[in-house]
Design brief:
Layout (H helix, E strand, L loop, with lengths): L1 E5 L3 H10 L2 E5 L2 H7 L3 H12 L4 E5 L5 H14 L4 E5 L2 H12 L4 E6 L2 H9 L4 E4 L1 H6 L4 H14 L5 E4 L5 H9 L4 E4 L1 H6 L4 H18 L5 H4 L1
Parallel strand pairs: 1-2, 1-8, 2-3, 3-4, 4-5, 5-6, 6-7, 7-8
Helix pairs in contact: 1-3, 4-5, 6-8
The structure holds erythose-4-phosphate (E4P).
Erythose-4-phosphate (E4P) binds next to helix 7.
Catalytic activity: beta-D-fructose 6-phosphate = dihydroxyacetone + D-glyceraldehyde 3-phosphate
Subcellular location: Cytoplasm
Organism: Vibrio albus
Length: about 220
């Protein structure tokens, strides 16, 4: 499983890079707009925090393939390693083919059906991003869509990965992990929840109390050897 963080907030990214086995950061136009700064500053700021090894995904906004490709080129002048997110519209699919031909890595985004994902993979997208919670919210089945995309990748031996996105709770992340999604991108608040369990907290508190009763408050293994 590849974990990515779905945010452009530098404090949240710093925290996640420090704590978690994070392999990338994804953004979308809404996430970028929340930061209310020039896009160049946002991309450079994130790259500085995540380093050269982790992935950074940023989305184009144009309505035509031609504009999308020019946006991708311009963003990659700021960050040459950038992975370009493109929505699965007809013009988006055309842009994916053009970007693939230029050797640019692509994430197909705003995926709500397995057929959109299949078409995007055939057009050269490396990551396929189904929106799990947005489907669940309209009485759809986001996990099933992610699972069917994973199945299609396997059946047709496609050179693509599911990048499941749009989560509002831990159970949704767990369900897509079981369904074989290779990658997830998760907002910081849900990411933190992945490790939460009251019995873990009470277990650790119990170990601390037993230890400190013998070895003293605030001591560690280093003090007791
Ligand atoms: C990532 O690719 C998506 O843009 C994102 O996960 C959407 O999440 P939301 O449905 O919470 O806006």
């Amino acid at each position: 499983m590849i974990y990515m963080l779905d945010t452009a907030n530098l404090e949240a990214i710093k925290k996640a890079v420090d704590l978690y086995p994070l392999e990338g950061v994804t953004t979308n136009p809404s996430i970028v707009a929340k930061e209310n700064k020039p896009l160049k500053d946002i991309l450079m700021g994130i790259r500085e925090v995540i380093g050269s090894e982790r992935m950074l995904h940023a989305q184009v906004m144009g309505e035509t393939a031609d504009v999308m490709v020019r946006e991708a080129d311009a963003m990659r002048e700021v960050d040459p390693e950038l992975i370009i997110k493109v929505p699965v519209t007809p013009q988006g699919i055309k842009a994916m083919k053009a970007l693939k031909a230029k050797g640019i890595r692509v994430t197909a985004t705003a995926i709500l059906t397995p057929q959109q994902a299949l078409m995007a993979a055939k057009a050269g997208a490396e990551f396929l991003a189904p929106y799990v919670n947005r489907l669940d919210n309209i009485c759809g089945d986001g996990t099933l869509v992610a699972a069917e995309i994973a199945h299609l990748i396997s059946v047709y031996d496609l050179d693509a990965k599911v990048l499941a996105a749009s989560f509002k709770n831990v159970q949704q992340v767990h369900e897509v992990a079981k369904a074989g999604a290779q990658t997830v991108t998760i907002a910081p608040d849900v990411f933190d929840q992945l490790l939460k369990h009251p019995l873990t907290d009470s277990g650790v508190a119990g170990f601390t109390a037993d230890w400190e009763a013998v070895y003293g408050a605030g001591t560690t293994v280093l003090d007791a050897l």
